[in-house]
Amino acid sequence: MNHGEGWSSGGRWGPRGRSQGSWQRPNRPKSESPVMVDRSLDESSGNRGRRGFQGGGGRCRQSWSPRNNSPVQVYVKKSLQVSDVGKAAQQETKCQEDGRGSADEDAAFNCWGDNKDVLQPSALSSSKNINLSGGLSVSRESEDMNGGRMSYDLVNRMGDVSFSRQVSVSSSTSDKKVELSSIEEGDSAHKSGDVGNACNESISKPFDICLEKEGFCLKAGLKELNAEKRRATTKGCTGTVIRPGMILLKNFLSINDQVTIVKKCRELGLGKGGFYQPGYRDGASLHLKMMCLGKNWDPQTSRYGDTRPHDGSIPPNIPFEFNQFVQKAIKDSQSLVASSSNKTKPEDEIPCMSPDICIANFYTSTGKLGLHQDKDESAKSIQKGLPVVSFSIGDSAEFVYSDQRSDDNAEMVVLQSGDVLLFGGKSRKVFHGVRSILKDTAPKVLVQETDLRRPGRLNLTFRQY
Ligand SMILES: O=C(O)CCC(=O)C(=O)O
Ligand SMILES: [Fe+2]
């Protein structure tokens, strides 16, 4: 991957970076046609679509129902630890130096503090659905009220499937017509891209993506949490072809899957090769914490290697279960492509891929990542269009993408907890980034079950070198 693509020119975008200009108000997705997909590991199916972008075109997006979070409020301690005050002050100074706004969240982030006050009801995505016949046989697991797993079939069966779609628009880049939906983005008055703060030091203490329970914490009622969990699991997974080669699998990871992933990432993240504050070529830091699995990606050189230069650590292996989720997501995406177009070879659009790299990013509430291309993988991998598979967990994010480095015409989609996005084939080199993190949008039940009390978003991207 290459987080640096947009970065060097003009120093505006950090490789994972940031934008120079102000972000525009998020574009409203134009079309969607969601397809229900199987979320369980042992079965597959699904497809979906989303729009192509600007320039002539159409958007081809497919969507589904919004996630409905319950209005549970969870109070979590807001404080920086005393020992972190110095760091926070340093951070503030550095941030001021590079023109960033308030540094308190990053300071909290870097200094292990927690700045979450109240978890508000989520900003929800919504979309109008239209029915679409299709033939995916879908089943999935869900959790019962006690957290036990139960399997049941989802609606989509050959002949009696009900796929949702929306406004019809044709894409300039694809021969098929797709439907667009409106998704309400969270209220994200979003700031212009901040510039990476100049922190090229690495923190020696591993970063804990979760926080120990301490201080005052008013738990959401068990009943409400169970209700939220039930809603999440019965909503089903739907897929959208955003543009050729870019697939969004909404609600793909169940709450239980997300809990598993967070716990595993936390464990790995606290060990050798765990989460750290990456620097950047010129010393500008990325607004996130990073951990590499399988291979190390070095932001300084934009290269992959077997060890992490700053501490010599060897990246932990990619957990087996993670790989299973990835394989399932690829299969489901291929099914989606097959069912939503006449393409006989969906692998041309989303080729199969065996990840040997996973980059885990943790964004705090002020985290962001400028437009960049992932292009540090082998020439062969990129040329074949092997997809990057991206998991979103925790707070929602405004994910932007464009054919150009500039964010002026970038399209935006909100990625919520449990969503999986793939970009391969014709979209393998799409410019993309994270415009902002939508505060307090993580499922409450996830927060409670993982102690993911640090506000933010965990993102995992899987690639094959
Ligand atoms: O956080 C995301 O959704 C994107 C991450 C990304 O683009 C990257 O790690 O290269
Ligand atoms: Fe990327």
TrEMBL record:
Q: Which GO terms describe its molecular function?
A: broad specificity oxidative DNA demethylase activity; DNA N6-methyladenine demethylase activity; ferrous iron binding; oxidative RNA demethylase activity
Q: What class of enzyme is it?
A: oxidoreductase
Q: Which residues form a coiled coil?
A: none
Renumbered to this chain, region (Disordered) spans: 1-72, 130-150, 174-195
Spans of biased composition, class Polar residues?
A: 62-72
Identify the domain of life: Eukaryota
Name the residues that bind Fe cation: H372, D374, H432
Required co-factor(s) are: Fe(2+)
GO BP annotations of the record are: DNA repair; oxidative RNA demethylation
The record's free-text note on cofactor binding? Binds 1 Fe(2+) ion per subunit.
- Xref: SUPFAM superfamilies: Clavaminate synthase-like
Q: Which reaction does it catalyse?
A: an N(6)-methyl-2'-deoxyadenosine in DNA + 2-oxoglutarate + O2 = a 2'-deoxyadenosine in DNA + formaldehyde + succinate + CO2
InterPro entries for this protein: Alkb (IPR004574), AlkB-like (IPR027450), AlkB-like_sf (IPR037151), Oxoglu/Fe-dep_dioxygenase_dom (IPR005123)
A GO CC annotation given for this chain: nucleus
What does the UniProt keyword field contain?
Answer: Cytoplasm, Dioxygenase, DNA damage, DNA repair, Iron, Metal-binding, Nucleus, Oxidoreductase
What sequence ranges are listed for the domain Fe2OG dioxygenase?
354-465
Subcellular location(s) of the protein: Cytoplasm; Nucleus
Which EC number(s) are documented for this chain? 1.14.11.51
Q: Does the keyword Metal-binding apply?
A: yes
In its keyword annotation, does this UniProt entry include Transcription? no
User: Could you say which protein family the record assigns here?
Assistant: Belongs to the alkB family.
Q: What is this protein called?
A: DNA N(6)-methyladenine demethylase
Q: Give the species.
A: Raphanus sativus
Q: What is the lineage of its organism?
A: Eukaryota, Viridiplantae, Streptophyta, Embryophyta, Tracheophyta
The primary gene name is: LOC108860743
